[in-house]
From TrEMBL:
It comes from Rosa chinensis (China rose). GO terms for molecular function: ADP binding; NAD+ nucleosidase activity, cyclic ADP-ribose generating. The keyword Repeat applies. This is ADP-ribosyl cyclase/cyclic ADP-ribose hydrolase. One of its GO terms (biological process) is defense response. Coiled coil: none annotated.
Length: 1141
């Protein structure tokens, strides 16, 4: 049993039992001062709460010279002592003896004392002045023969006065002070509450109980409804019973209502009233008495296993029925019960983790924490089968207690054939609560759609059932029969899935051909090899993990008897025989590796909605026209022998057509050109298509993909194609982009890169594409003149520029627009405010020699700028006016000598790898220009001239000093970047780590000792600064890898023992061409080092290529250094009195 909330780490199975206190609070007070006033009010509030047991001596007179044994025991058996120090407190020897005993208990045990200074000054108590002086003057006379006793009392008062407590004069009224005291008591008492007095061991329960404690909020006086929901057998009743047993004695009325599904409503309501009201005979009287009798009482009611919204409404809906502080706990398998009754406070229970599950199973099977010798692997198999469900773990474990190994093996084998009846019957209750349609959908999902995206499942069910099924899917989720993972895939608990299989298996236990659904290999092979198919079968799914050739005895004639078959899916099954018949009743046909060259001539599937036959042997689907009025999706991807598409005239409702990688495809039927429902058309890498419509008028088309269709030209577009948003036409045979592209008013992306034949752009037409966000023209070498004309048009006609106000991104790759040896260079023409909404501009490898001086004014919204691989030697000063720029990539600009003055932003990523001529980062006069800088990331690998010109020290650390200034400000200290990200991160050439880093180590790891008093110095400690020296040289493996990265790991150390967790702190991507000695300087915030259990942290550094592969030895970390960074260090950086490098 566990909450769906992820736990940071696995907790122990159950806590070591804390000291058992008979009382939570002992009240020590002077009766004549406070008994009928402050103390009585405080005692009432403490008793009013749900968890506090308070001892208060109610005797008016102090009898005897010393306190009674009863009081001594009460003091010893109380967790907290609240000492109310009033003016006459010290005049009572009884009170002073109480206080001495309380102080003694505090010093010898773990009792806590909370003093309240009521109408007295704490300093008078500490120094025994005023009324305390008068009282002790009398005590010294009366006990002149026992001065040690008087001194003991004095010392007790001094000690209690030095403790943190409350001075009543600091509060407006007594009620405010009492509220503060009660909240503090709750904070102290809550961690000591034990789970239960039950002899049973409870596993994985601590975290959930803490969450329930937060929801119960006993310090609050409101009436609260709290839900516990989850699948059957997950432990909802167990949790509710534990909570009930722990807190029920603090309520005036407490009832646990079980079997609420079966019992009459009047019985349930009478149970809540009984035994308080016994003479209630009919439902009207019960309703009347509930509202009247309970409205002024603090009530605890648990309503267990509620399966319908109206039942809860009738049992306990109205909060006005219950008095202040009442709590109503509802357990249910159906989240909708909570939603419809407006119960917003709830916990969802899910299965135990593996270690907790093994422990719970062991308690039942062996009465021990771990399995006995020889039973570990079998125990693990039962734990795996149970999938963390407590009911299954308990049931199976108990059934195997004191049984022999042979019996364990027998039970394991039988579970593969027949589920345990106790588990099955419990889970099936949720299924039985569904209506007929929901049951069918649930079984369909269990057999055919588990692991599929939720939206896709809804779409496929809609094709089968004829309407949107999202509401039904959500109902199944709410009833804990389905789950949705973080990737939006539909799933279900393994035992729920098995329950679904067993329900269908009960159709015919011996003959699979008589069942409604088939998904198990053995059953499907039996049906097709023995030809036992019947019209009972509605769905078949066989998806093998890898390619496998079917037995030659497979007989497809059995399809002829499957007249009601709606769903058929085969994948990774190679079959030599060819089906001569397919059921016309099919709605979904998915048959990858389909063996035949065409579909059977007799196949007339008028209800077919999905046809998917990837990697098939199809040459054509059918001859002539086929009427498929319900077909919505066709996918024939990677069918290498497919020569032509069918006539689409008879498929008027087709929405998706996928023909990816059909190498043999030559002809796309001309009827596609005027299809009015098609939304997505993908012909990716159909390199041999020659026949494609010259003009398309597909009014619903949203996505057109002609990626690497090297013999196809982009067609003309009809005026009604307003829905087309994306065209991917990389590497086509297009020579001229059609002017009719201006009709595509909804186009947001146009990719025509690598179109080697493309010579011209319809400049005026492109300027009419108001919604265009992405334009990729990389690798179109014949476009030089056309692009020049377009820029001239843009420059000369400002009104036309305004039509491009929605353009978000312009991408031009290596177009050959400027040859390095040519005297003429392409320059971007000045275009003031040309693209006011452009946010990302990518002009990599365009041989640009000059960037327009007014670039900073052309693109006021630009945030992402990449100019890598160009030929300019400087950037215009106006770039600093790009007020939203946070990312700039200047890598491989070999002639660039100096970084420009950067914008005054609070976040900057600068990439300048392989800039061979780079000498300086910015003009010295511009250092410190970053008043808001809170993050700075610079990558300058292989820029070795930076060291020669000291540009690194002059530039980078002026920025660090500015970061230091921000580091002292509260805004930075509380910023996301400071706590969870790098505030600065720099890679640059260098080999020597400065002595400023006071912890240094040779090799790739070092240990940082944490200050023992770091909790008290957090206002000064900022974090840790690291400097890592690493080296690299040319390496073919690294050059072929998708990326190169250096990564920092941390391992916490407690008393010379390294904890097992090995966490990635941070990593930095590097240029794959990084060579020679480099330094990596970065900072982590103090939040990552505030774990008080660790006395030190070991940091290690590794270089990787690819994703997780260690780099070979040609790349290595030579040494590393670190320094705990305090505010004074930042001030020194700010004042320029410290250099890091």
């Amino acid at each position: 049993m566990a909450l769906s909330t992820h736990r940071a780490s696995s907790s122990r199975a159950w806590a070591e039992p804390p000291p058992q206190w008979n009382f939570d609070v002992f009240l020590s007070f002077r009766g004549e001062d406070t008994r009928t006033g402050f103390v009585s009010h405080l005692y009432r509030e403490l008793q009013y709460r749900q968890v506090f047991k308070t001892f208060k001596d109610d005797r008016e007179l102090e009898i005897g010279a010393s306190i009674s044994p009863e009081l001594l025991r009460a003091i010893e058996q109380s967790h907290l002592a609240i000492v109310v120090l009033s003016p006459n407190y010290a005049s009572s020897t009884w009170c002073l003896d109480e206080l001495s005993k309380i102080i003694e208990s505090m010093e010898t045990g773990d009792k806590r004392i909370l003093p309240v200074f009521f109408n007295v000054d704490p300093s008078d108590v500490r120094h025994q002045r005023s009324s305390f002086a008068e009282a002790f003057a009398k005590h010294e006379v009366k006990f002149s023969n026992d001065p040690e006793k008087v001194e003991k009392w004095r010392e007790a008062l001094r000690k209690v006065a030095n403790l943190s407590g409350w001075d009543a004069k600091n509060y407006k009224c007594e009620s405010e002070l009492i509220e503060v005291i009660v909240k503090r008591v709750w904070e102290k008492v809550l961690p000591t509450i034990t789970l239960s007095d039950s002899k049973e061991k409870f596993v994985g329960i601590e975290f959930i109980l803490r969450q329930m404690g937060l929801l119960l909020a006993p310090e609050e006086k409101d009436v609260r409804f709290i839900g516990i929901w989850g699948m059957g057998g997950v432990g909802k009743t167990t949790l509710a019973r534990l909570v009930f047993e722990r807190i029920s004695h603090h309520f005036e009325v407490a009832e646990f209502l079980v079997d609420v599904r079966k019992r009459p409503l009047i019985d349930l309501r009478k149970q809540v009233l009984s035994p308080h009201v016994s003479l209630v005979w009919n439902e009207n009287e019960v309703t009347k008495f509930i509202g009247k009798f309970l409205s002024n009482k603090k009530v605890l009611v648990v309503v267990d296993d509620v399966d319908s919204c109206d039942l809860l409404e009738k049992v306990a809906l109205d909060k006005s029925w219950f008095g202040d502080g009442s709590r109503i706990i509802v357990t249910t398998r159906d989240k909708r019960v909570l939603v419809e009754n407006d119960i917003k406070l709830s916990v969802e229970l899910v299965g135990l983790n593996v270690s907790d599950a093994l422990e719970l199973f062991s308690h039942k099977a062996f009465k021990k924490d771990q399995p006995e010798e020889g039973f570990l692997e079998l125990s693990k198999s039962f734990v795996y089968y149970s999938k963390g469900l407590p009911l299954a773990l308990k049931t199976l474990g108990s059934s195997l207690y004191q049984r022999k190994l042979e019996e364990w093996n027998s039970t394991s084998e039988s579970l593969r054939r027949i589920p345990n009846p106790t588990i099955f019957d419990s889970l099936k209750l949720s299924y039985d609560a569904l209506n007929d349609l929901q049951r069918k959908m649930f079984l369909d999902i269990a057999f055919f759609y588990k692991g599929v995206k939720k939206g896709r499942v809804n779409q496929l069910l809609e094709y089968c059932y004829g309407y949107n099924c999202l509401i039904e899917i959500n109902v199944l989720i709410e009833k804990s029969l389905l789950t949705i993972d973080q990737n939006d895939n539909v799933g279900m608990h393994g035992l729920i899935e098995e329950m679904a299989w067993e329900i269908v298996r009960q159709d015919s236990r011996e003959e699979p051909g008589l069942r409604s659904r088939l998904c198990h290999r053995k059953d499907i092979f039996l049906v097709f090899t023995e030809n036992t198919g019947t019209d009972a079968i509605k769905g078949i799914r066989l998806c093998l993990p890898c390619l496998e050739e079917a037995d030659s005895s497979w007989n497809f004639e059995c399809f002829s008897r499957m007249t009601k078959l709606e769903f058929l899916e085969f994948d990774n099954l190679i079959i030599s025989s060819v089906p001569k018949f397919l059921p016309d009743y099919l709605r979904i046909l998915i048959w990858n590796w389909y063996p035949s060259k065409s579909l059977p001539a007799s196949f007339q599937p008028s209800m077919l909605a999905v046809l998917e036959m990837q990697r098939s042997n199809l040459v054509r689907l059918w001859d002539g026209r086929q009427d498929l009025p319900n077909l919505k999706r066709m996918d024939l991807g990677e069918s290498k022998n497919l020569k032509e598409t069918p006539d689409f005239t008879g498929i008027p409702n087709l929405e998706e057509l996928y023909l990816l990688n059909c190498d043999g495809l030559v002809k796309v039927h001309q009827s596609i050109a005027v299809h009015k429902k098609l939304k997505r058309l993908r012909l990716d890498r159909c390199k041999n298509v020659k026949s494609f419509p010259r003009k398309i008028e597909m009014d619903s088309l949203e996505h057109l993909n002609l990626w690497e269709c090297s013999k196809v030209k982009i067609p003309e577009f009809g005026e009604g194609m307003k829905n087309l948003s994306f065209i991917l036409a990389r590497g086509t045979a297009t020579e001229e982009l059609p002017s009719s592209i201006e009709h595509l008013v909804g186009l947001t992306g146009l990719c025509i890169r690598d179109s080697k034949s493309l010579q011209s752009l319809p400049g005026t037409a492109i300027l009419k594409l108001k919604s265009l966000e992405i334009l990729n023209m990389r690798g179109c070498p014949k476009l030089k003149k056309s692009v020049e004309n377009m820029w001239e048009t843009v420059s000369e006609k400002p009104p036309a520029l305004r039509r491009l106000s929605s353009m978000k991104r312009k991408r031009m790759g290596p177009t050959g627009l400027c040859k390095r040896k040519s005297p003429e260079h392409l320059c971007l023409s000045p275009t003031p405010r040309a693209f006011p909404s452009l946010s990302a501009l990518c002009l990599n490898d365009c041989n640009l020699c000059v960037i327009p001086d007014d670039i900073g004014y052309c693109f006021p919204s630009l945030s992402y700028l990449t100019l890598a691989g160009n030929n300019f030697d400087s950037l215009p000063a106006s770039i600093k006016c790009l007020s939203k720029l946070w990312h700039i990539d200047l890598g491989r600009c070999k002639r660039l000598e100096q970084l420009p003055d950067l914008p005054l932003n609070d976040y900057l990523d600068v990439y300048a790898d392989d800039c061979d001529s780079l000498k300086m980062l910015s003009e010295p006069s511009q250092q410190g220009r970053f008043p808001k800088l809170m993050h700075f990331n610079l990558r300058a690998a292989n820029c070795f001239r930076l060291i020669d010109n000291e540009g690194l020290n002059n530039g980078i650390f002026s920025m660090l000093r500015r970061l230091a200034a921000q580091g002292i400000s509260p805004d930075f200290l509380h910023s996301f970047e400071y706590h969870y990200r790098k505030s600065f991160d720099i890679v640059s050439p260098g080999s020597k780590i400065s002595d400023w880093f006071d912890t240094q180590s040779e090799g790739d790891s070092l240990t940082v000792e944490l200050p023992p008093d770091r909790e008290s110095c957090t206002s000064e400690l900022m974090g840790i600064v690291f400097c890592v020296a690493f080296s690299g040289k040319k390496d073919p493996i690294a050059l072929e890898a998708p990326r190169l990265a250096i990564r920092c790991f941390s391992t916490r150390i407690v008393t010379d023992h390294a904890l097992p967790n090995h966490q990635i702190v941070i990593d930095q991507h590097l240029s794959k061409h990084t060579m020679g000695d480099h330094l990596w300087v970065f900072f982590i915030g103090r939040c990552q080092i505030q774990d008080t259990t660790s006395c030190s942290i070991r940091f290690s550094f590794r270089l990787y290529h690819g994703i997780n592969n260690p780099i070979p030895c040609s790349y290595c970390v030579k040494s590393c250094g670190a320094r705990l960074l305090y505010e004074q260090d930042l001030k020194n950086l700010l004042n320029g009195t410290t250099n890091i490098l």
